[in-house]
From TrEMBL, chains A, B:
Protein name: Precorrin-3B C(17)-methyltransferase
Gene3D superfamilies per the UniProt record, alphabetical: Cobalt-precorrin-4 Transmethylase, Domain 1, Methyltransferase, Cobalt-precorrin-4 Transmethylase, Domain 2
Source organism (scientific name): Romboutsia maritimum
Upper lineage: Bacteria, Bacillati, Bacillota, Clostridia, Peptostreptococcales
Residues annotated as domain Tetrapyrrole methylase: 1-207
Entry keyword annotation includes Methyltransferase: yes
Enzyme class: transferase
GO BP field: cobalamin biosynthetic process; methylation
A Pfam family that the UniProt record links to this protein: TP_methylase
Keyword S-adenosyl-L-methionine: yes
Biochemical pathway: Cofactor biosynthesis; adenosylcobalamin biosynthesis
EC numbers, comma separated: 2.1.1.131
One example GO MF annotation: precorrin-3B C17-methyltransferase activity
Record's keyword terms, sorted: Cobalamin biosynthesis, Methyltransferase, S-adenosyl-L-methionine, Transferase
InterPro entries documented for this protein: 4pyrrol_Mease, 4pyrrol_Methylase_sf, 4pyrrole_Mease_sub1, 4pyrrole_Mease_sub2, Cbl_synth_CobJ/CibH_dom, Precorrin_MeTrfase
Length: 241, 241
């Protein structure tokens, strides 16, 4: 039995009851060490298998092997397990096994939703998620999605916006979207959603400071109707109030 | 004080701890009657203000007036309050008030995430949300977004896909996306996510049966890499397994 659990952005308050119950029911907890550190209160007395970044395949293969021994395994993702998390990889690996291994995906609050609640209501209308990581996706595909999303006037949520190895991706993304996004478009930035060091900034498309952004930051770019009121970013649904 | 709460798709298990705590802390619960029926265990001993569909503005104005009397009000949305929910409207109304009314947005699991967990892992890669309701959005804007989202090869999650008054919207949307979505593209359909009557279907773009879909259904259309394995819909992130 494998639970693939989205633990939400970080705090216990943003976890679902199902995520907590699944962690409590598991014999073994498997996860990226940074995420394991967010759930220390749930790992007491349990076997813990943790490893580093970019070791997702090893981690998931490990989980499948442990599940074959009859133990209940919880694989942890931050946010939602089905959004740039471990759900797909676990299901792909299990589909190649001859044995029947039960998998239960336990949904969670993804980073865009957590960040939106802190910013105000920026994703009240049609929006999209685009990851700027080209580790697994060709950069041309990412560029195409950025351009078409901006043309469609989606609110755009950027995942993996900027890392040490890819410090220029975010500026490039803004340049591409700038063809359709006006300079006055509100942009919301939340670092470390729901964690101790949480920080929030609101600015405009033209005044964006890329240096403020790292891998644990969510960047949300508004649509043509999005406005800033005091320190809040609001995308109206369209009600006349 | 107003809590704007996303209660998740319907079951208590998919609620966050913060949503439960906020409901328990509130003096008054305000919501659409269908959603109030999902949280009966939390309304005992509390004042409840409920009304029908399309009365969102009245409902939120009511909540603001009650908050002015000093009571703690919880405004309930299904899914996440910041995604086609009540968060934006409450913030817009409060921004027009002279009094300082504190608003806390409490995030939740939105329908696409809940449906995805039931289908497998369909939104593992870049995706978008498009509402097919033209009550508040011109149909041309919706058409444009559908076309560009399909061209960008996003996984597409359709909210408000079909109602009695708009029975043709979904078929029209598929016709538009058909310019770019191949007939063999997997489509996942989940009715009443997390509720008693929950139902799940997986089919292809060409074999889609629009009659199966109503207002409480989530429709998820895959990207070029999405595949069906047994009854699961999986969009690979791109790992070589």
């Amino acid at each position: 039995m494998i639970y693939v659990i989205g633990i939400g952005p970080g705090s216990k308050e943003m976890m679902t009851l199902e995520a907590i119950n699944a962690m409590e029911d598991a014999d073994v907890i498997v996860g990226y060490k940074t995420y394991i550190n967010l759930i220390t209160e749930f790992i007491e007395g349990k076997e813990v298998v943790q490893n580093g970044m970019r070791q997702e395949i090893d981690r998931c293969k490990n989980a499948v092997e442990i599940a074959k021994t009859g133990k209940k395994v919880a694989v942890i993702s931050s946010g939602d397990a089905g959004i740039y998390g471990m759900a797909g990889l676990i299901l792909e690996l299990v589909s190649k096994e001859k044995e029947d291994i039960k998998v239960k995906i336990v949904p969670g609050v993804t980073a865009s939703i957590g960040a939106a609640a802190i910013l105000g209501a920026p994703i009240m209308h049609d929006f999209c998620h685009i990851s700027l990581s080209d580790l697994l996706t060709p950069w041309e595909v990412i560029e195409k999605r950025l351009r078409l999303a901006a043309e469609a006037d989606f609110v755009v949520c950027l995942y993996n916006p900027r890392s040490k190895g890819r410090s220029e991706h975010l500026a490039k993304a803004f340049k591409i979207m700038g063809e359709f996004k006006d300079g006055s478009t509100p942009v919301g930035i939340v670092k470390d959603v729901g964690r101790e060091k949480q920080e929030k900034f609101v600015c405009t498309f033209d005044s964006m400071d890329f240096e403020r952004v790292d891998m644990t930051t969510m960047v949300i770019i508004g649509n043509k109707s999005t406005f800033i009121h005091e320190d809040q970013m609001i995308t109206p649904r369209g009600y006349t109030v």
